[in-house]
Amino acid sequence: MGAEGTQESLETRELRYFLAVAEELHFGRAAERLGMAQPPLSRAIQQLERRLGVRLLERNRRGVALTDAGEVLLHEGRAALDAVTAAARRTRRSAGADDPAGRRNRLVLAVKAAASHELLHKLLDAYAAEPDAVEVEVLPSGTCEQGDMLRDGRADVALMHAPFNSLAGFDSEELLTEGQIAILPARHPLAARRTLTLADVTDIPDLPLARWSRDGTFLPGPGPEIHDQTQLAQLIALGRTVAIFPDSARAWLWAEHTAVPLTDAPPVITHIAWPAHSRSLPLAALIRTATRL
Question: I want to staple 56 with a disulfide (CB 3.0 to 4.6 A). Which of 29, 70, 98, 274 is the partner?
């Protein structure tokens, strides 16, 4: 291989090493995360810099910082590793190698827990009636995890919700537009109102807004940190928090909950989204079914 080809090639092992250092900004912590000693990790990064002909990291006594070139490789490297991981996962899934029962060619559909309940039921029932339908495994996710699941191959297709989910890098079809509601404890005084505004909901002294994790970080605020829909439902029923959801969330409300429409909340648009490069025939059939609904 010529010098130019060598400079332009990257190994997945090198990317994993670099990403660990770039994310930790500390060689010791990165080595511990990778399960290796620090000296060989340092040598591997130095060899990578020499081969690429650029400095990726600035090292000093205070720690490690990314150069401009390092920032580029951090962004591009994450996408590249996700693509490699996704290819491996989808290849194994197509052959049933990732399933104890050996089920082949099944589709994994990522959905936000407790969202689009009625639409999801209709979609699964309609697709199951198709003559060449394959099994669809529904994979519940957190608030904004569907995109990550598509990128790294944990899911083949997802129901995503604008403006909360980014559709960048995916193909998608719009399925449903709906308003938003506040879900309150049924005994709270505001539960008797016919409508509310966002200001009404975010400024309740005795009922702080629930906080979901986005990219592993909980949004700031006094409300409780929410990890799943069951926890949220119980805390609302106990009068500890309030939450904002699309109108379709009414499907999972308890008797101790009340839903009140929000007059000034932006509409939520549900899309079915999938990787732009997908060539899966079962996926194409599922998307056709979804758009007919």
Answer: 70
pLDDT in tens, 132-183: 999 999 998 877 889 999 999 999 999 999 998 999 999 999 999 999 999 9
Report the distance separating Cα 232 and Cα 176, nearest Å. Answer: 24
Quick one: CATH architecture of 105-169+274-292? Answer: 3-Layer(aba) Sandwich (3.40)
**For domain 180-261, is the CATH number 3.30.1490.190?**
no
Query: In angstroms, rounded to a whole number, what is the distance separating the alpha carbons of residues 120 and 132?
Result: 19
Tens digit of pLDDT for each residue in 269-278? Answer: 999 999 998 9
Pair 180, 246: CB distance under 8 Å: yes
Three-state SS string over 187-202 comes to CCHHHHCCCECHHHHH
- Please list, residue by residue across 217-237, b when 16 or more beta carbons sit within 10 angstroms of its beta carbon and e when fewer do: eeeeeebbebeebeebbebbb
- Give the separation between CA 29 and CA 22, rounded to whole angstroms: 11
How do residues 14-37 score in pLDDT, each as one tens digit? 999 999 999 999 999 999 999 999
DSSP characters over 143-160: TT-HHHHHHTTS-SEEEE
Taking the model in full, what pTM does it have? 0.76
Question: Measured between alpha carbons, how far is 173 from 273 in angstroms, rounded to an integer?
Answer: 7
Q: What is the per-residue pLDDT for 4?
A: 44
The fold adopted by the segment(s) 3-91 is Arc Repressor Mutant, subunit A (1.10.10)
